[in-house]
Amino acid sequence: HVQLVESGGGSVQPGGSLRLSCTASGFTFSGHTMTWVRQKPGQRQEYLGAITAAAMTYYPDAVKGRFTISRDNAKNTLYLQLNSLQIGDTAMYYCGKGWPTDTNYVRGQGTQVTVS
Fold first, then answer.
1. pLDDT tens per residue across span 51-107
2. Could you tell me the CA-to-CA distances from 5 to 25, 50, 73, 94 in Å, in that order?
3. Which of 8, 51, 54, 114 is the right S-S partner for 20, CB 3.0 to 4.6 Å?
4. Cα(64)–Cα(55) distance, rounded to whole angstroms?
């Protein structure tokens, strides 16, 4: 079955950086679009970007230029580089297999990022 395990979260000061990782198993990682979302308490999840099987990346304007998604297919690992972090970036961050709107979308358990 599909398993996605995020890591790399933590506490950081404003202006700092973090790199999140997502290790995938249970499916052919290299053949799938992977996405990142985040969720703040009491709010809906927010789409942060995607990387296709061909390594094309897409970002919403809200994070473009600050967040970067990459993948290492040899390691079945997805990454999210977070730069110039702001207090408003505090949230639980999740990686996902597929687009959040897909019926078979799966996301991991998340990793907490706290900016203060």
1. 999 999 999 999 999 999 999 999 999 999 999 999 999 999 999 999 999 999 999
2. 9, 17, 15, 9
3. 8
4. 16
Query: Could you give the C-alpha distances from 6 to 22, 29, 62, 95, in angstroms and in order?
Result: 4, 15, 22, 7
Please name the amino acid found at residue 108: G
Kindly state the tokens that stand for 51: 């990387």
Tokens of 73: 């297919």
Extract the tokens encoding 85: 């972090």
Contacts of 97 (CB under 8 A, 6+ apart): 2, 4, 24, 27, 32, 34, 104, 105, 106, 107
* Cα–Cα distance list, 55 to 2, 22, 28, 105 (Å): 21, 16, 15, 19
